Amino acid sequence: MTASPTDTDEIFRPLSPEMLADPYPVYARLRATDPVHWHEQLQSWVLTGHDDCSRVLREPTVFGSDPRRLGLPIPDSVISLQTMDAPEHPEVRHHFVRALRGQDLDRWAAEVRATTDELLRRAAGGPFDFVADIAEPLALHAMCLLCEVPYPDDDRPLRGASRTMVLGMDSGLDPQRREPALAAREVLNDIVARWVSTARTGLFAGFAEIGSIDRRHLVNSAKAVFDAGYSSTSNMLGNVVHRLVRRQPLETERLRGLGTDGVAELGRLDPVVQAVSRFCLADVELGGRPLRRGDVVIAMLGAANHDPAVFPNPDEPDLTRPAGPNLLYGRGAHSCLGGHLANRIGVALLHAMADAFDRIEPAGAARQRPTATQRGLDELPLRAS
Ligand code: HEM
User: Fold this and answer.
1) Is 229 in the pocket of ligand 1 (CB under 6 A)?
2) pLDDT given for residue 268 in this prediction
3) I need a surface site. Which of 125, 268, 355, 381 has the fewest CB within 10 A?
4) pLDDT at 6
5) Does ligand 1 have an atom closer than 6 angstroms to the CB of 328?
6) Can you give the residue ranges of every domain in the chain?
7) CB 92 near ligand 1, within 6 Å
8) Does the beta carbon of 228 lie inside 6 Å of ligand 1?
């Protein structure tokens, strides 16, 4: 992957081969020299300090998600709970929180574990691609079970659409990705709209009871829940397993003691969601810089999660760290609805790997996905014995 020809920033070039391979040294440099960095091509402020990123997430009345509050246009097709502010946002979010609470999550976790065992059983015996053979189908099964929808007979259109949408998240840096991502969004929208039209219970039902919200925005929100859950979880599983095997073969015995906090700490090392953006709704000072109403800020969660002021020796896992400051799942009004579930999927996977295999090692070079907003792998060849 070559850097976008228009990616002219001196330091912050997220699609450059160097940053795709390892963005953390660049984040460290920016945090030390210019923690509130103006990026000309993105026309945005890039934040790399934990304090600044946390503040942006925690103050939704100053740093908003809804461009309509600034009089900016936004197509109906993309309005979802992720692009809303109060008063709409809490109403829609509450619907999904309640629906998630209504699920029998212990039964769900047992089904996720059984699926994991089956996927690992099929992979055993020869080299396999952890991304295509385990992480993606496992995350998709987990989301289908959670949303009470059938696993697709042919999962390739959905998996392909999701990958294209993840690429499209970087269309600010590489505009050629915009059109394919819009087409992929339609594919996913159609699938989710069909599920919503037949759902009687669960996350995709009960929209009629949220009277004040446009139904299209609720369907978009259902799509956002599904895709946020699927793509983030599958990428997180790949990133975590890659970290575990990349330096030396993994003796799986050490995975047995890991719980949900351990999964989140491993996820912190290479966070899936590297960047989230907000609009300044008022003039505000950040890191000594005057920001104007209407400015866009990008909180680099990947950088915040490696801030040595908060995480001593940030590049190494430390299972004794307090979990609180970890921004893997965001923070505040828009924090992740499913982080606790993603952690449970991670635990199911790591424990199942410990039960199925003694040792796991690379069977070839991992291939990084050429994406910056969401970080993940296209391929992770492994061998297990
Ligand atoms: C390892 C897996 C996951 C990671 C790393 C992750 C990360 C995140 C982050 C960082 C945010 C905050 C975005 C922002 O502030 O703009 C977020 C929001 C969200 N996540 Fe996750 N997520 C994961 C899994 C899931 C799962 C399994 C679900 C669904 C069950 C889910 C549903 C959502 C939704 C709906 C939002 C938007 C919430 C809102 O705007 O109010 N995520 N996620």
Assistant:
1) yes
2) 98
3) 125
4) 53
5) yes
6) 17-384
7) no
8) yes
For residue 47, give every residue at least 6 positions away whose Cβ sits within 8 Å of its Cβ, in sequence order, or none: 35, 36, 37, 53, 56, 286, 287, 297, 298, 299, 300, 303, 304
Nearest residue (CA) to ligand 1, atom 16: 276
Task: Note the pLDDT of residue 203.
Answer: 87
* pLDDT tens per residue across all 385 residues of the chain: 334 445 678 899 999 999 999 999 999 999 999 999 999 999 999 999 999 999 999 999 999 999 999 999 999 889 999 999 999 999 999 999 999 999 999 999 999 999 999 999 999 989 999 999 999 999 999 999 999 999 999 999 999 999 999 999 999 999 999 999 999 999 998 999 899 888 888 888 877 677 788 988 999 999 999 999 999 999 999 999 999 999 999 999 999 999 999 999 999 999 999 999 999 999 999 999 999 999 999 999 999 999 999 999 999 999 999 999 999 999 999 999 999 999 999 999 999 999 999 999 999 999 999 999 999 999 999 999 9
Tell whether ligand 1 has an atom less than 6 A from the beta carbon of residue 236. yes
Distance CA 334, CA 224 (A): 12
What DSSP state is assigned to residue 332?
A: G
Nearest CA to ligand 1 atom 26: 229
CA dihedral 312, 315, 317, 323 (to 10 degrees): 60
d(CA 320, CA 296): 35
For the chain, the C-alpha Rg in angstroms (whole number) is 20
Structure tokens that stand for 284 in this block = 């505000």
CA 233 from centroid of its chain's CA atoms: 7
Ligand 1: distance of its center to the CA of 359 in Å?
Answer: 32
Atom of ligand 1 nearest to the CA of 233: 2
Structure tokens at 368: 């990084």
Instruction: State the DSSP string of 154-169.
Output: S-HHHHHHHHHHHHHT
Coil, helix or strand for 246? Answer: coil
CATH 3.30.1330.30 fits 17-384, yes or no: no
Contact 67, 279 (CB under 8 A): yes
Among the listed residues 334, 336, 328, the one whose alpha carbon sits nearest the alpha carbon of residue 270: 328
